[in-house]
Amino acid sequence: MRKIKLTPLNIIVALSFTYAIYCLLGLDKSNAGISTSSKVVYTLALTLILFLTDILFRRFIQNIKWLWLIEGSFVLLIAIMMIIFQKV
Question: Are 73 and 60 contacting, i.e. CB atoms less than 8 angstroms apart?
Fold first, then answer.
């Protein structure tokens, strides 16, 4: 069995996929003005994009320490950008 690399993007992909399933089952009761099916579609699109980004990072960065550093910085940058865009 190949060595499985656990990375920050893997964790985020797993969490977003779990949230999509959570919404699909109807357990999300928030009234954010967006339908459940739209939430599921957008979350699955985000999951796919993050999964492909993770594969791209793994292809170009072989060292696991650098992979964690770069992917962690990427996740932090995306989180900061989301916060900034929500304020604007």
Answer: no
**What residue ranges do the domains of the chain occupy?**
8-87
Distance (Å, whole) CA 66 – CA 8: 12
Report residue 55: phi and psi, to 5°.
-65, -40
b/e string for 4-21 if b means 16 or more Cβ within 10 A?
eeebbbbebbeebbebbe
Which tens digit of pLDDT belongs to each residue from 62-87? 888 999 999 999 999 999 998 999 88
Query: How big is the chain by its Cα radius of gyration, in Å?
Result: 15
- The pTM of this model reads 0.81
CA distance 6 to 26: 30
CB 21 within 8 A of CB 52: no
Looking at residue 62, the DSSP 8-state letter turns out to be -
